[in-house]
Every structure is written in structure tokens, then in C-alpha cells.
Design brief:
Shape: globular
Strand order of the largest sheet: 4-5-6-7
Oligomer: single chain
Radius of gyration: 27 Å
Number of strands: 7
Strand content: 25-35%
Mean pLDDT: 79
Length: 186
């Protein structure tokens, strides 16, 4: 009996598989870096604020200027339970572009037209100073011009409110608080 146990141990000890490879250790050269807007899950919601947004927002009308990202807020705007990205982009004025959080991070889907890009909003030449989402309502605070003001400085504190209806944004309200003096732009 001892002989059988002894032979079994010898056989087991000699039966190591040569096919099994040790687990590779990660190194800088063996890992592939994800693009800046790509998150581990591959969707936009996973990239969130860390995405390289200046490659996805619309270009400035003045082709000599590059868009500047002022702020990024993530919140569920579409109601699908996935965080969407609201990106404040500035050239001479600010706009807010909303990207669907379930879209691929390498090619995010813009929802409707940028907020603050309507002819009425553009007349005010808004410069966003704050952005928040409350119960799927987008609230944008901005310094802007009065509609009839063609001056060089923004003197109105504006609050815009938008909501998504279907696939289009609807402006709910615009509040104006004239400051009577020049307000900062940037």
C-alpha cells in the first residue's frame, strides 16, 4: 500500500503542465492606453468629466479661435438612468452642449442643438458663470448683454432654464437681473 501511495505522489509531482503560462505582469509597454475620451466601460458616462471635450464640441465660428471648455457637469437629462454630459464651451460667447451618456465615448452623440445658441440667446452674448441640473431641469447662470445693448461689457445677470422634451430642448424661462455695471466675462 505504501508503494502505491509513493508512486501516486511521484506521478502527481511529475504531472505539471508545460502549457500553463504564468500570468503576465502588467508593464507600460504591454498595456494599451485608452483614448482620452474613452472610459473603461466604453460609453460616455464612464468618461464623464475626464473626457477630452474640446475634440467633440462644435468649433468656434471664428476659425482662428479654439473652443475653451469652461465646465463639465454630469447628470441624467434623458431619464434613462445613465449620466449625460453637459459641456460649457466658450468662444466669444458660451454655449452648453449636451451629450448622451449612453453613447460611445469615442464618438459621443450630441442631443439637439447647443443651449444658448438660439438667436435670442445669442443677442445677449452670454458668458456662463454656473451650470446645474435639478430634477432634469438645466439651469444656466450667465453674464450677458441687454438685447438693445451693443456695448462691450456684459451688465445683466441671466438665468436660463431648459428641459428635454422628446429629443429637443425647450427653454422654460429666462430671468434677468441687471447689474448696472460691467460683469466679468471669463
Amino acid at each position: 500500500m505504501r508503494f502505491v501511495l509513493f508512486m501516486a505522489l511521484i506521478l502527481l509531482a511529475g504531472c505539471t503542465s508545460h502549457e500553463a503560462e504564468p500570468a503576465p505582469t502588467p508593464s507600460a509597454s504591454s498595456t494599451s492606453a485608452l483614448p482620452e475620451a474613452e472610459g473603461p466601460a466604453g460609453n460616455l458616462a464612464s468618461a464623464g468629466k475626464d473626457a477630452d471635450w474640446d475634440t467633440f464640441v462644435l468649433p468656434c465660428e471664428d476659425k482662428t479661435k479654439e473652443p475653451t471648455i469652461q465646465q463639465v457637469v454630469t447628470a441624467d437629462i434623458t431619464g434613462d438612468g445613465i449620466a449625460d454630459a453637459l459641456v460649457v464651451r466658450a468662444c466669444d460667447n458660451s454655449t452648453v452642449e449636451v451629450f448622451d451618456g449612453s453613447s460611445p465615448a469615442r464618438r459621443p452623440w450630441r442631443i439637439d442643438q447647443p443651449l444658448l445658441s438660439s438667436p435670442t440667446a445669442e443677442l445677449r452674448r452670454p458668458w456662463v458663470t454656473g451650470l446645474e441640473v435639478a430634477s432634469r431641469e438645466i439651469i444656466i447662470k450667465a453674464n450677458g448683454h441687454a438685447i438693445d445693448d451693443h456695448g462691450t461689457c456684459r451688465k445683466d445677470r441671466l438665468t436660463f432654464a431648459f428641459t428635454l422634451v422628446g429629443t429637443d430642448f425647450t427653454q422654460l424661462r429666462l430671468e434677468n437681473d441687471p447689474a448696472g455695471k460691467c460683469l466679468p466675462a471669463g
